Amino acid sequence: MREKNARQWISELSDRIGITGWAALAVTPALLAEVDQHAAAVRDILLFGVEGAGTVAAVVLLAAYARGLLEIEPEWTLTSWIGVRLMAVCRLAHTHGTRPLSNA
């Protein structure tokens, strides 16, 4: 059940980013590079900072991480630090899904 709720929440976050945000990644190499850097940082934070992270579905960890970000900064734009970080979280969740996070 946790995984289903996390997937739903990530899906809603991805919808908030919207077509504009995802299209910008396709045509803006600098933004894509920034999102990739944020994704690597988030992955490392969770893998090395959360005990047992390698045994939990990535989507669950990522949804919890993103919720924490939004508690601190509920208002964001696609070009803000939080917006780029949230895009990175969604990309990681899409890549790893219910598998645990890994360095791959």
Write structural notes for this entry.
The protein is mostly helical and 104 residues long. The chain has four helices and no strands. α1 crosses α3, α1 packs across α4 and α3 packs antiparallel against α4. The longest helix is centred in the first third of the chain and has 26 residues. It starts with a helix and ends in an 8-residue tail after the last helix. The model has no long low-confidence stretch (mean pLDDT 93).
The gross shape turns out to be: globular
What is the mean predicted local confidence, pLDDT? 93
DSSP strand content: under 5%
Largest sheet: none
Poorly predicted spans? none
| Secondary-structure-derived class | mainly alpha
| Proportion of residues in helical segments | over 70%
Terminal Cα span: 26 Å
